[in-house]
Structures are given as structure tokens and as C-alpha cells.
């Protein structure tokens, strides 16, 4: 049987996807909005050496398998499928096909794959390397993907047709309102990225804001932008671990997209550290991606773990809320914004597609493919409720007065 037909049978003959293979075979309806193309025997060699998600990802990152058309459309067309779900006869046929490729075309993982974890998990040095791996790619690349806001976290859409920039502004403003920011207050923003929250708090609320990040490139970009906007008297972004911030007595702390890098065992210390940096009555807004529940492991799949977020972990909402509550915070509000992250990722995917040639020239085809695949897959995961985005607001209470309004005023 032709190669294209073999793969079509595995995933389903009625998919709105066209399969093409280097042997000239095609299967599926023509004129589809997306097509899967096996460009060389090396694609099958990758799949033979690592069956499933990782082998397919390696083949795509290395350019031996191509997705023509819209990546999100292609991924959305595939039903969730495990090797055990494939009928035995088809598994035998597929194994027979792949066995020869593994023998005659040995392959190595792409150079972009992060496999060499060194040092104690979530130590300062290992966290620094993991963050640098993902964020110290190229500020220019991120500008093309993220847009002018340079904000790499979930936006908040007041309406579905809002622009990405409007939604990122609304996200920062929602955080500021939840934290009760007012002129003259102080804010610590941990995992500050390119300084979006720090800039917003200083520019729109007159707040003295300090941000910290483990990415040198992010810190350099933020410092330049702060100076350019004339906000150096209010705003600062440091290349620093949040655990090393010496100041205390902040009125508010924001953690936007950092908790995913902390690790479950470190959560108690993480929340205690943030509590100790707040004054009594000060608020913490924790914004992070979570699993829907705690019924499966916290670590993401092999592709995300090796190509996107080394050492990343997604906890359940209950884990985040419980650890926050048990380590110095009275939890006052919580909400799930997962649909907003799907919309955010749709905007980033569109930006990458629009700037594809420039992005490939900047960071290379393999790394650009990693971002194309992971952002489209993440969009789909948020839509399907495979992952969520939760904002949890807590206050450092003195055991009585919380300094919170009787009803939310944001």
C-alpha cells in the first residue's frame, strides 16, 4: 500500500486533510486547507526511533515532514489517538513499514532539542538555564510574534474582535485594578519578561515598579524601553532571580506566567517568599497556566518539555489555590481565562505566519517550526480544556482586616 494511504488509514480516511508522500502517493480530498507531507524516508526514521508525538515533532522540526497550509487547522483535524487505539492489523503493517527505516536511515534528534538537564531541578542555576533556553532566542523574533506590546502571556479580551494590543493592555490593567494600584504605591513584578506590567503600572498608575527576570535579553530590552519612555524614575527591570530580591514592604506583587516554571515542591517556598516581600494588607496576583485537574502528571508532554519549556510543570487550580492559602495568603478571588489564551495564541500564530520568512532568517527554520507547532497546539489545548489559565488574588492579612473592598471593584 502507498505510504500516504497507510498514514491516512491510521488517523482516519474521512479527515479533511490531504496526505502526500515522497513516493508520489496522495490520499484524501484535494484542495484541503492543510496537507501533511512526508518529504523523505527520514521522516519515517524519526517516527520509528521515537513512536508517537516526539518522533513526529522531530521529523517536523528537522524539515523531513511538512505541514502545508494552516498548522492549527491541520492539528484540529486529527482526533486524539494513542498507539493502543490503532487496530492491531494496522499497527503490524505500520511497524513493518517503519522497521526498515530505523535500520537503514538512523537519525539523531534536532540540535534544538533540550535534553541535557544539569544540576538540581529548580535550583537557581538550572532555572536560569531553562529560562534562557526559551526566552533568550531573539528580541527581534519575539517582536514579530508578540507584536508591539512584547507581552508573552495571556491577554484579556473584552470582546472577541478586540486587537491583540487592546487585549494585552486590558490584561495589564485588570491586574493593576485587582491589585488596587494607586499613585505612589510600590509593585514587585516577578517573571517580568520585557517589562510590560512594570511599564503599565508606572505609566498609567504612577507606581514605583521593580521587575525581575532570568532572561538577560528581556532585561536589556526592558531597560532600553523604560529609558526611551522617560520612566526611569519609576520603573526598573533587573536580571535577577525573584528569590534574590532584597527589598520588602511592597504594596503589591504580580506574578504573570512564572508559576509554570516553579515546580510543585517549590510552591510553598515560592508563596512564602512573596508574602515576605509584601506589607500587611498587600496583595498578590498570581496568573498562570494550569492543568484542568490533578488527575494526571504535572509535567507536560515530551515535545513541550524538550523543545519549549524545559522543567516546566502545570499544577491544578486546587494545588495553586491551596498552596497559596496555606502559605500566608487569604485568597479573595479566582477566575479561569482559558478562552482568552486561545484568542491570544491565535493572534501570535497569525503574527508568526505573517512574518514567517523574516522569522526563519532570524532564528533558523528549525526553531521557527518549533514555535509554529507549539503555539498552534497550545491554542487547540486551551479550546479543548486540556489546559487552563487562572488568575488568583490573595492578600497578606494580619488575621483580621484584609483591606479588601466588600465587593470586587475592578
UniProtKB/TrEMBL annotation:
MF terms in GO: cyclopropane-fatty-acyl-phospholipid synthase activity
Coiled-coil intervals, chain numbering: none
Gene Ontology terms describing biological process: lipid biosynthetic process; methylation
Enzyme class: transferase
Family indicated by similarity: Belongs to the CFA/CMAS family.
Pfam families in the record: CMAS (PF02353)
Entry EC number(s): 2.1.1.79
SUPFAM superfamilies with a match to the protein in the record: S-adenosyl-L-methionine-dependent methyltransferases
UniProt keyword terms in alphabetical order: Lipid metabolism, Methyltransferase, S-adenosyl-L-methionine, Transferase
Name of the protein: Cyclopropane-fatty-acyl-phospholipid synthase
Amino acid at each position: 500500500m502507498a505510504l500516504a494511504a497507510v498514514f491516512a488509514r491510521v488517523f482516519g480516511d474521512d479527515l479533511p486533510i490531504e496526505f502526500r508522500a515522497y513516493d508520489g502517493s496522495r490520499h484524501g480530498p484535494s484542495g484541503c486547507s492543510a496537507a501533511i507531507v512526508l518529504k523523505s524516508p527520514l521522516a519515517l526514521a524519526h517516527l520509528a526511533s521515537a513512536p508517537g508525538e516526539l518522533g513526529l515533532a522531530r521529523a517536523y522540526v528537522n524539515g523531513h515532514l511538512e505541514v502545508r497550509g494552516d498548522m492549527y487547522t491541520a492539528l484540529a483535524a486529527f482526533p486524539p489517538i494513542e498507539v493502543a487505539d490503532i487496530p492491531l492489523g494496522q499497527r503490524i503493517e505500520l511497524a513493518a513499514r517503519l522497521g526498515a527505516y530505523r535500520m537503514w536511515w538512523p537519525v539523531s534528534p534536532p540540535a534544538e532539542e533540550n535534553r541535557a538537564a544539569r544540576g538540581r531541578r529548580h535550583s537557581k542555576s538550572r532555572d536560569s538555564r531553562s529560562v534562557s533556553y526559551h526566552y533568550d532566542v531573539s528580541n527581534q523574533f519575539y517582536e514579530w510574534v508578540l507584536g508591539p506590546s512584547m507581552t508573552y502571556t495571556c491577554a484579556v479580551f473584552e470582546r472577541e474582535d478586540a486587537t491583540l494590543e487592546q487585549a494585552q493592555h486590558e490584561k495589564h490593567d485588570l491586574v493593576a485594578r485587582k491589585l488596587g494600584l494607586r499613585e505612589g504605591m510600590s509593585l514587585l513584578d516577578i517573571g517580568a519578561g520585557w517589562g510590560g506590567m512594570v511599564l503599565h503600572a508606572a505609566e498609567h498608575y504612577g507606581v514605583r515598579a521593580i521587575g525581575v527576570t532570568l532572561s538577560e535579553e528581556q532585561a536589556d530590552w526592558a531597560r532600553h524601553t523604560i529609558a526611551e519612555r522617560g520612566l526611569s524614575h519609576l520603573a526598573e527591570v533587573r536580571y535577577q532571580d525573584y528569590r534574590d530580591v532584597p527589598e520588602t514592604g511592597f504594596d503589591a506583587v504580580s506574578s504573570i506566567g512564572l508559576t509554570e516554571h516553579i515546580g510543585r515542591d517549590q510552591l510553598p517556598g515560592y508563596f512564602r517568599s512573596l508574602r515576605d516581600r509584601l506589607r500587611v494588607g498587600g496583595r498578590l496576583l498570581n496568573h498562570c497556566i494550569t492543568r484542568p485537574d490533578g488527575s494526571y502528571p504535572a509535567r507536560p508532554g515530551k515535545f513541550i518539555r524538550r523543545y519549549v519549556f524545559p522543567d516546566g510543570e502545570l499544577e491544578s487550580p486546587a494545588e495553586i489555590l491551596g498552596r497559596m492559602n496555606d502559605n500566608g495568603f487569604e485568597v479573595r478571588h479566582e477566575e479561569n481565562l482559558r478562552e482568552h489564551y486561545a484568542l491570544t495564541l491565535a493572534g501570535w500564530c497569525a503574527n508568526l505566519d505573517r512574518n514567517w520568512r523574516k522569522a526563519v532568517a532570524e532564528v533558523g527554520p528549525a526553531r521557527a517550526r518549533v514555535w509554529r507547532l507549539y503555539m498552534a497546539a497550545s491554542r487547540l489545548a486551551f479550546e479543548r480544556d486540556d489546559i487552563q489559565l487562572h488568575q488568583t488574588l490573595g492578600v497578606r492579612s494580619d488575621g483580621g482586616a484584609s483591606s479588601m473592598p466588600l465587593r470586587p471593584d475592578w
